[in-house]
Amino acid sequence: DAKATVSSAALPGLGKVFRAEVVLAVPVARLHQELFERIEQMPQWNPTLSRVKVLQRIGTDTLVTHEVTTPSPGNLVGQRDFVSVRHRGRRETAVYLVGTATHVEPLPLQEGCIRAESRLSCIVLQPLAEDPGCTRFTWLLSMDLKASATMLLGGWIPASVVNHVLPQSQADFIKHLCQHLSATACP
């Protein structure tokens, strides 16, 4: 089972950026397909998402998406939704999946959700030189979870909570992705 290493750095203009890195025994093309082509199927294998919908396709390499997290009891952060623009690019053998919040597609606020914003999500998929059937998966993530006015903590999410939740969500996503890929491995 692949275990991600997660680190962080504070960057001017972005705030805290978390970096998750892991080597997966899956080819780049398969990961690219799951994370971009089949993005609407993510809630089938990622229990932290209740819905992912492509709102708009801009050419073949750009999507506007709406994602809704699942409500979970005891969740310190609460249910969130995101409207994001996602773009894919390729450079040599690497595939880049980049996303950020957008307001280009107006979408009403969802009942019981707080509209959070992805400042930056960048996934780099690189085949290993020594084994092209394996992929180095690197994910940079910076989010503004937005404060909940109904939270018991006076409406603010302490940095310590965000600093725990975001890297944990990256590790959980990678764990669910690995479970999905091993359950549906191509012959």
TrEMBL record:
Keyword presence, Mitochondrion: yes
InterPro entries linked: StAR, StAR-like, START-like_dom_sf, START_lipid-bd_dom
Pathways per UniProt: Steroid metabolism; cholesterol metabolism
Example of a GO biological process term: intracellular cholesterol transport
Localization terms from the record: Mitochondrion
Stored SUPFAM superfamilies: Bet v1-like (SSF55961)
Keywords recorded for this protein, A-Z: Lipid transport, Lipid-binding, Mitochondrion, Steroidogenesis, Transit peptide, Transport
Any one of the GO CC terms: mitochondrion
Keyword Membrane included in the entry's annotation: no
Domain START: start-end pairs: 15-186
Molecular function terms from GO: cholesterol binding; cholesterol transfer activity
Pfam family, one: START
Subunit and interaction comment: May interact with TSPO.
Name of the protein described by the UniProt record: Steroidogenic acute regulatory protein, mitochondrial
